[in-house]
Amino acid sequence: MTVVRSLYNRFEHLVHELSKFGTVGAIALVVNMGVFNAFLFAVPGKQIVAKVVSTVVATCVAYVGNRYWTYKDRDKIDRGREMLFFFVINGVAMVIEVMFVFISKYGLGRDGTLAVNVASYVFGLPLGMLFRLYCYRTFVFPEGMAEEEVGVPAAAHTPLYPVGHPLHVPHGHRQQPVPETASR
């Protein structure tokens, strides 16, 4: 039991992050599937458009959930840059998912609701999810510096010369210019 506890303690932060990421992903998945199938019902034959629309809507839901819950403690890079990275990464993941719907519809000739759902959610979504997880952690919500590391570097407070050295200047004192001595 101590081995399991030791492993949990070692990876506790990752377990919590993955559970939050998974919860946000599950909510986004429900939104994605709902929009996708509602679109297919409303506009039959437009599987690719349905996949794009459903992924864009789910991406917006995922951004809010990940920014304000999963990665709320991460260093916040410029919000515009963060959003750009997030939506570019999700665009690439969307291409991965759409590729499987495209293969199902045009490559295999299977364009029924069940076939495109299997292509999208059994094949495309897991690959897109792995891609997203890696990219979110690395590029969109990178780990920030610890609070004590932020600010003035320690070297800025370290004297140039140690105490006792002839050129050591105590904090708050100005060093007098050394008269030039020229031996002629």
Strand residues, percent = under 5%
Quaternary form: single chain
Helix and strand sequence: HHHH
Query: Into how many domains do the coordinates divide?
Result: 1
Number of helices: 4
- Fraction of residues in helices? 55-70%
Question: What overall geometry do the principal axes of the alpha carbons give?
Answer: elongated
Q: Count the strands?
A: 0
Largest sheet: none
| CA-atom Rg in angstroms | 27 Å
Mean of the pLDDT scores? 79
Uncertain segments are 145-154
Structural class by helix and strand composition: mainly alpha
| Gap between N and C termini | 82 Å
Can you offer a commentary on this structure?
With 184 residues, this protein is mainly α. The protein has one domain (11-143). It is built from four helices and no strands. The protein has helices at residues 2-42, 47-70, 79-107, 113-140. Helix 1 (2-42) crosses helix 4 (113-140) and helix 2 packs antiparallel against helix 3. The longest helix is centred in the N-terminal third of the chain and has 41 residues, at 2-42. It is elongated and about 85 Å long. Mean pLDDT is 79; it is low at 145-154.
